[in-house]
Amino acid sequence: MFDRKASDGKDRLQKIIAERGYCSRRKAEQLISNGKVKVDGVLVTQLGSRFPADCKIEIEGKPLLTLSESKGRFVYFAVYKPVGFICTASDPQNRRLVTQLVPPKFGRVFPVGRLDINSEGLLFLTNDGDFANLVTHPSSSPDKTYEVTVDSRLTRDQIAELQKGIMLDDGLTAPCLAKEVSFSIYGATYDVTIHEGKNREVRRMMEHFNKNVKSLKRIRIGSISLGKLAKGSYVELPQAIVDRIKRDCELRKAQNSQSKTPE
User: Fold this and answer.
1) Given a cut of 70, is residue 137 above it in pLDDT?
2) What pTM was estimated for this model as a whole?
3) Which of 20, 22, 28, 82 has its CA 20 to 30 A from that of 210?
């Protein structure tokens, strides 16, 4: 059967919610049945209820943008991912998602790159696929800096080895920068700046030297730092900052292209 718009110009509520990018229709049906959805301030629990496509919808007390408000509008966020959140838009195990750190009124967003579940720190969220590709593609992605605390100090030779590149299971790492920030009898903290995006790269580099990683936090992506952003919070990036990130990535892409051009 085709889900055609009724002659009165109204659609099923679950269809409207899905079209605004909040979730799937099935998930929308669950939210409606569980009493989580209001339309124009009125609670709706009856599946199949029909409304105009531009109606005002609240899910768990948070408003959704209408299609006219969100159409063609890209959004960009910097978030502080806490430990325990995963960098996907959905999860069959119902674990906490980084996308839940941004209010649903902005519509569906997705993470740019990833941080593993046991790591924290700076992450971008957006609905702009071109921006995400530019920031994550190896030819244009910016450097990323991590604050990593391990159970004992690295030797000077080990730091030098990191800066030259070390052999992991999936190949040689690119040269990185490693700077000791502090140390005590309980361990040591380093700022490690990498360009690659290999899975769990910083953790595996430390494990290569038999170091136990006590904490790992991403504190910078290119020119954007975590700063004073509170854990679990977000900030919408101004267009000027987004444009700067794009310029930096395009410059990196051009530099990489020139370095590969034969003389």
Assistant:
1) yes
2) 0.75
3) 82
